[in-house]
Protein backbone atom coordinates (compact mmCIF):
# COMPACT_ATOMS: atom_id res chain seq x y z
CA UNK A 1 0.00 0.00 0.00
CA UNK A 2 1.35 3.42 -0.97
CA UNK A 3 1.89 5.99 1.79
CA UNK A 4 0.01 9.27 1.53
CA UNK A 5 2.29 12.34 1.18
CA UNK A 6 1.12 13.80 4.51
CA UNK A 7 1.99 10.55 6.30
CA UNK A 8 5.48 10.91 4.88
CA UNK A 9 5.66 14.47 6.24
CA UNK A 10 4.61 13.25 9.68
CA UNK A 11 7.41 10.69 9.63
CA UNK A 12 10.13 13.15 8.62
CA UNK A 13 9.17 16.29 10.52
CA UNK A 14 6.47 15.61 13.11
CA UNK A 15 6.70 19.03 14.76
CA UNK A 16 6.47 21.00 11.51
CA UNK A 17 4.05 18.76 9.60
CA UNK A 18 0.84 20.65 10.52
CA UNK A 19 2.30 23.95 9.29
CA UNK A 20 3.72 22.35 6.15
CA UNK A 21 0.40 20.66 5.46
CA UNK A 22 -1.47 23.94 5.95
CA UNK A 23 0.87 25.83 3.61
CA UNK A 24 0.52 23.15 0.94
CA UNK A 25 -3.26 23.14 1.22
CA UNK A 26 -3.46 26.94 1.12
CA UNK A 27 -1.20 27.06 -1.93
CA UNK A 28 -3.39 24.48 -3.67
CA UNK A 29 -6.54 26.48 -2.87
CA UNK A 30 -4.95 29.72 -4.07
CA UNK A 31 -3.66 28.07 -7.23
CA UNK A 32 -7.04 26.53 -8.03
CA UNK A 33 -8.88 29.83 -7.47
CA UNK A 34 -6.50 31.69 -9.75
CA UNK A 35 -6.03 28.89 -12.26
CA UNK A 36 -7.96 30.52 -15.10
CA UNK A 37 -6.65 34.02 -14.44
CA UNK A 38 -3.06 32.88 -13.97
CA UNK A 39 -2.92 30.43 -16.86
CA UNK A 40 0.17 30.27 -19.08
CA UNK A 41 -1.83 28.94 -22.08
CA UNK A 42 -1.13 28.20 -24.85
CA UNK A 43 2.13 26.93 -23.34
CA UNK A 44 2.70 24.69 -20.33
CA UNK A 45 4.24 25.71 -17.03
CA UNK A 46 7.45 23.89 -18.05
CA UNK A 47 7.56 25.85 -21.31
CA UNK A 48 7.03 29.13 -19.45
CA UNK A 49 9.97 28.23 -17.22
CA UNK A 50 12.09 27.69 -20.35
CA UNK A 51 10.97 31.07 -21.67
CA UNK A 52 11.90 32.79 -18.39
CA UNK A 53 15.38 31.26 -18.53
CA UNK A 54 15.87 32.26 -22.17
CA UNK A 55 14.68 35.77 -21.36
CA UNK A 56 17.27 36.03 -18.57
CA UNK A 57 20.01 34.48 -20.71
CA UNK A 58 19.41 35.33 -24.37
CA UNK A 59 21.58 33.18 -26.62
CA UNK A 60 21.70 30.28 -24.14
CA UNK A 61 22.42 26.89 -25.71
CA UNK A 62 20.44 23.69 -25.20
CA UNK A 63 23.08 22.07 -22.98
CA UNK A 64 23.15 25.00 -20.54
CA UNK A 65 19.36 25.23 -20.59
CA UNK A 66 19.24 21.52 -19.72
CA UNK A 67 21.48 22.15 -16.70
CA UNK A 68 19.17 24.94 -15.50
CA UNK A 69 16.17 22.62 -15.85
CA UNK A 70 18.00 19.53 -14.58
CA UNK A 71 16.58 17.75 -17.61
CA UNK A 72 17.90 15.42 -20.30
CA UNK A 73 18.81 16.81 -23.71
CA UNK A 74 15.93 15.13 -25.60
CA UNK A 75 13.36 16.59 -23.18
CA UNK A 76 14.84 20.07 -23.45
CA UNK A 77 14.95 19.81 -27.21
CA UNK A 78 11.25 18.78 -27.35
CA UNK A 79 10.28 21.70 -25.12
CA UNK A 80 12.13 24.07 -27.43
CA UNK A 81 10.65 22.40 -30.54
CA UNK A 82 7.15 23.15 -29.24
CA UNK A 83 8.04 26.71 -28.31
CA UNK A 84 9.57 27.26 -31.73
CA UNK A 85 6.46 25.80 -33.42
CA UNK A 86 4.32 28.22 -31.35
CA UNK A 87 6.47 31.09 -32.59
CA UNK A 88 7.84 31.98 -29.13
CA UNK A 89 11.46 30.83 -29.48
CA UNK A 90 14.00 31.19 -32.28
CA UNK A 91 17.00 28.89 -32.71
CA UNK A 92 20.03 30.25 -34.50
CA UNK A 93 23.35 28.52 -35.15
CA UNK A 94 26.29 29.84 -33.16
CA UNK A 95 28.45 31.81 -35.61
CA UNK A 96 31.72 29.99 -34.81
CA UNK A 97 30.17 26.50 -34.47
CA UNK A 98 27.05 26.00 -36.57
CA UNK A 99 26.31 22.65 -34.84
CA UNK A 100 25.41 24.49 -31.64
CA UNK A 101 22.04 26.24 -31.51
CA UNK A 102 21.48 29.43 -29.55
CA UNK A 103 18.03 30.23 -28.20
CA UNK A 104 16.26 33.58 -28.13
CA UNK A 105 12.72 34.69 -27.51
CA UNK A 106 10.85 36.04 -30.50
CA UNK A 107 8.80 39.22 -30.24
CA UNK A 108 5.74 36.99 -29.80
CA UNK A 109 7.48 35.11 -26.97
CA UNK A 110 8.40 38.34 -25.22
CA UNK A 111 4.83 39.61 -25.63
CA UNK A 112 3.42 36.37 -24.21
CA UNK A 113 5.64 36.57 -21.13
CA UNK A 114 4.63 40.19 -20.66
CA UNK A 115 0.94 39.21 -20.80
CA UNK A 116 1.39 36.29 -18.38
CA UNK A 117 3.15 38.63 -15.93
CA UNK A 118 0.47 41.30 -16.34
CA UNK A 119 -2.35 38.86 -15.56
CA UNK A 120 -0.48 37.39 -12.59
CA UNK A 121 0.38 40.80 -11.19
CA UNK A 122 -3.20 41.96 -11.63
CA UNK A 123 -4.58 38.88 -9.86
CA UNK A 124 -2.06 39.19 -7.04
CA UNK A 125 -2.75 42.91 -6.68
CA UNK A 126 -6.50 42.30 -6.45
CA UNK A 127 -6.04 39.60 -3.81
CA UNK A 128 -3.60 41.69 -1.78
CA UNK A 129 -5.95 44.71 -1.87
CA UNK A 130 -8.48 42.55 -0.02
CA UNK A 131 -5.96 41.88 2.78
CA UNK A 132 -5.36 44.11 5.78
CA UNK A 133 -2.07 46.03 5.82
CA UNK A 134 -0.87 43.81 8.69
CA UNK A 135 -1.68 40.66 6.71
CA UNK A 136 0.17 42.02 3.63
CA UNK A 137 3.19 42.81 5.78
CA UNK A 138 3.09 39.35 7.38
CA UNK A 139 2.86 37.74 3.91
CA UNK A 140 5.82 39.76 2.65
CA UNK A 141 7.90 38.95 5.73
CA UNK A 142 6.99 35.26 5.58
CA UNK A 143 7.71 34.92 1.87
CA UNK A 144 11.06 36.70 2.25
CA UNK A 145 12.03 34.31 5.06
CA UNK A 146 10.84 31.33 3.03
CA UNK A 147 12.89 32.40 -0.02
CA UNK A 148 15.96 32.85 2.15
CA UNK A 149 15.48 29.40 3.72
CA UNK A 150 14.80 27.79 0.33
CA UNK A 151 18.05 29.22 -1.07
CA UNK A 152 19.97 26.62 0.96
CA UNK A 153 20.21 23.15 -0.63
CA UNK A 154 17.61 20.72 0.66
CA UNK A 155 18.97 17.75 2.55
CA UNK A 156 17.59 14.29 1.76
CA UNK A 157 15.18 12.93 4.35
CA UNK A 158 16.70 10.47 6.80
Q: How would you describe the overall organization of this protein?
A:
- The protein has helices at residues 5-12, 17-34, 45-56, 62-69, 73-85, 107-129, 133-150, and strands at 60-61, 89-94, 97-105.
- It is built from 7 helices and 3 strands.
- The chain starts with a helix and ends in an 8-residue tail after the last helix.
- The longest helix is centred in the C-terminal third of the chain and has 23 residues, at 107-129.
- The protein is 63% helix and 11% strand.
- Strands 1-3-2 form a 3-stranded antiparallel beta sheet.
- By secondary structure, it is mostly helical.
- Strand 2 and strand 3 form a beta hairpin.
Write the layout of secondary structure elements.
Elements: H1 5-12, H2 17-34, H3 45-56, E1 60-61, H4 62-69, H5 73-85, E2 89-94, E3 97-105, H6 107-129, H7 133-150
Antiparallel strand pairs: 1-3, 2-3
Amino acid sequence: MREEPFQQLDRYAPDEAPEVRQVLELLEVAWERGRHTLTTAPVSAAQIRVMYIIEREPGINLRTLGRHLDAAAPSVSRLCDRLQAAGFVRRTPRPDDRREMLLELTDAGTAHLREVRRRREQGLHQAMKRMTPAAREALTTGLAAFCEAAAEPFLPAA
